[in-house]
């Protein structure tokens, strides 16, 4: 470490902007993805993709780069998710915060695991979360909702994660790596 | 940047999750206590999002159109012949329709019929498909106007063929339409020529179910489904769909509107002179607020 001996200088403006953009990359990508999933492509089951994508993003970034996915950002994105869809306001904010909390708490044990293992953990967590979301909507709406969309959401989340993770692992080493700024 | 001491920063990081959880739970409670709160938030966000979606979606729509043009070039000849044949048939029907219109006018004149007021309508592009897992809704961008946005709430949305849904939230530039397939959509309808009453209930699937038809008079397969004015939410006689029996032998409605690929919607706001048996939740409070200002 040759740097330690040198006098610490203020980083230049460009470097700070670079670091900031890298720090904001995960949240930015998440909001952008949620926005794009609203376009009327007419894909069957498009509605299920939005919460599945949000869960995959929060799980991945809380696990590998929690500085880029702090709790206030998670809460705001949950709120956006509630406003985009017609879910009771605050419901997905609470659910995503629970996912964030659970992921951060189990970080140390999860990081050394293989990809398949983290995928399995994500499937379990997203299934639990989707179930809680279903229960929340049933409680608020005071009527029983069909279970098929719930199953579709769980399957979508399980399928979306490898695709999202494949892209994010590259971003984790490149576009989102604050230490490279 | 504000410099904070390390222990303070650590404490802040540790506290942020429980604090955010508390804030979110409070939001859930506020949303439960005041239904307008989420409605206003959603409408203001839709007003920001609708132009953005319009801008981003424009190339997709353009590509769709141009792709269609190129695709149609190949079977232009066959399509032309088909259109000519259809046109000849339609000209015959036009004569029938004109005769029927004249007869209808004569009958109305002899009955001293009072015509229903023509509704005001807006045409808007469907820019986003913003359903949830248990909700079916689309976002429509509206021309900017100075009118009271809450007047649009409750407007009937139709595509070229039939009823697609109803406006549940409206801002100055956007309106959110709850589709007839949504679980919360319950529409009184009339079946067939005699308009026997039933209720069309959204099931979150593609075809809404038919409930509460008169016992002993099951809806006939292929019967026309029109809106009914029962409850005062819809004007009577708008085309909705056709009765069909599904694999479980339950009557469902095959909607005329192409709900999977909506591009344009016309929003008709009918004069609000019917008895309010199905009040729109935002109406009462919005009216109260306007009186205050």
Element layout with pairings:
The complex is a heterodimer of chains A (181) and B (293).
Chain A: H1 13-36, H2 46-64, H3 71-84, H4 91-105, H5 107-110, H6 115-141, H7 148-173
Chain B: H1 6-33, H2 35-74, H3 76-111, E1 120-129, E2 137-141, E3 156-158, E4 163-170, E5 174-179, E6 186-191, E7 196-201, E8 209-211, E9 224-227, E10 239-245, E11 251-255, E12 264-269, H4 281-292
Helix pairs in contact in B: 1-2
What is the share of helical residues of chain B? 25-40%
Alpha-beta classification of chain B: alpha+beta
Per the principal axes of the C-alpha atoms, what is the gross shape of chain B?
Answer: globular
> What portion of residues of chain A is helical?
over 70%
Query: How is the biggest beta sheet of chain A arranged?
Result: none
Q: Percent of residues of chain A in beta strands?
A: under 5%
What is the approximate shape of chain A? globular
Mean pLDDT of chain B: 83
Rg measurement of chain B, Å: 24 Å
Percentage of β-strand residues of chain B: 15-25%
Distance between the termini of chain A: 17 Å
Mean pLDDT of chain A: 86
As residue ranges, the low-confidence spans of chain A are none
Oligomer: heterodimer
Keywords:
heterodimer, A: 181 residues, mainly alpha, 71% helix, B: 293 residues, alpha+beta, six-stranded antiparallel beta barrel, 12 strands, 24% strand
Short recap of the structure:
The complex is a heterodimer of chains A (181) and B (293). By secondary structure, chain A is mainly alpha-helical.
Overview of the molecule:
The complex is a heterodimer of chains A (181) and B (293). Chain A has one domain (14-38, 47-180). Helix content of chain A is 71%, strand content 0%. Chain A is built from seven helices and no strands. Chain A is globular. The two termini of chain A are 17 Å apart. The mean pLDDT of chain A is 86. By secondary structure, chain B is of the alpha+beta class. Helix content of chain B is 40%, strand content 24%. In chain B, a hairpin with a 3-residue loop joins β4 (163-170) and β5 (174-179). Chains A and B meet through α2, α3, α4, α6 and α7 of A and α1, α2, β1 and β2 of B.
């Amino acid at each position: 470490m040759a740097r330690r001996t040198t006098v610490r200088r203020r980083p230049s403006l460009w470097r700070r902007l670079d670091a900031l953009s890298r720090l904001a990359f995960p949240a930015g990508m998440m909001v952008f993805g949620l926005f794009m999933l609203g376009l009327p492509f007419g894909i069957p089951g498009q509605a299920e993709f939005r919460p599945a994508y949000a869960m995959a993003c929060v799980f991945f970034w809380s696990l590998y780069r929690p500085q880029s996915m702090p709790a206030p950002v998670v809460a705001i994105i949950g709120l956006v998710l509630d406003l985009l869809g017609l879910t009771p306001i605050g419901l997905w904010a609470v659910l995503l915060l629970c996912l964030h909390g659970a992921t951060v708490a189990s970080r140390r044990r999860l990081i050394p695991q293989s990809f398949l293992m983290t995928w399995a953990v994500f499937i379990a967590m997203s299934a639990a979360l989707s179930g809680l979301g279903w229960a929340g909507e049933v409680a608020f709406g005071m009527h029983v909702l069909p279970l098929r969309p719930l199953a579709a959401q769980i399957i979508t989340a399980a399928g979306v994660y490898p695709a999202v993770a494949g892209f994010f692992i590259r971003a984790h080493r490149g576009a989102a790596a604050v230490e490279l700024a | 940047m504000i410099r904070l001491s390390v222990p303070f920063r650590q404490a802040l990081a540790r506290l942020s999750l429980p604090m955010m959880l508390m804030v979110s739970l409070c939001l859930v409670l506020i949303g439960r206590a005041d239904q307008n709160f989420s409605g206003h938030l959603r409408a203001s966000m839709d007003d920001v999002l609708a132009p953005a979606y319009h801008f981003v979606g424009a190339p997709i729509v353009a590509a769709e159109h141009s792709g269609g043009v190129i695709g149609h070039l190949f079977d232009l000849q066959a399509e032309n012949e088909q259109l000519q044949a259809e046109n000849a048939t339609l000209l015959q029907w036009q004569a029938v329709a004109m005769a029927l219109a004249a007869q209808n006018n004569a009958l109305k004149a002899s009955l001293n019929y009072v015509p229903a007021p023509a509704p005001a309508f807006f045409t808007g592009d469907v820019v986003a498909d913003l359903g949830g897992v248990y909700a079916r809704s689309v976002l429509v961008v509206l021309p900017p106007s100075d009118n009271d946005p809450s007047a649009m709430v409750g407007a009937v949305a139709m595509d070229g063929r039939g009823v697609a849904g109803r406006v549940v939230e409206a801002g100055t530039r956007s309106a959110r339409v709850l589709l007839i397939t949504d679980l919360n959509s319950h529409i009184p309808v009339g079946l067939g020529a005699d308009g026997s009453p039933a209720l069309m209930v959204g099931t979150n699937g593609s075809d809404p179910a038919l409930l509460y038809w008169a016992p002993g008079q099951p809806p006939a397969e292929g019967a026309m489904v029109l809106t009914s004015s029962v409850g005062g939410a819809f004007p009577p006689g708008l085309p909705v769909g056709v009765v069909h029996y599904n694999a479980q032998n339950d009557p469902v409605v095959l909607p005329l509107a192409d709900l999977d690929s909506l591009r344009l919607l016309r929003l008709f706001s009918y004069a609000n002179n019917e008895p309010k048996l199905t009040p729109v939740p935002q109406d009462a409070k919005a009216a109260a607020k306007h009186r205050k200002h």
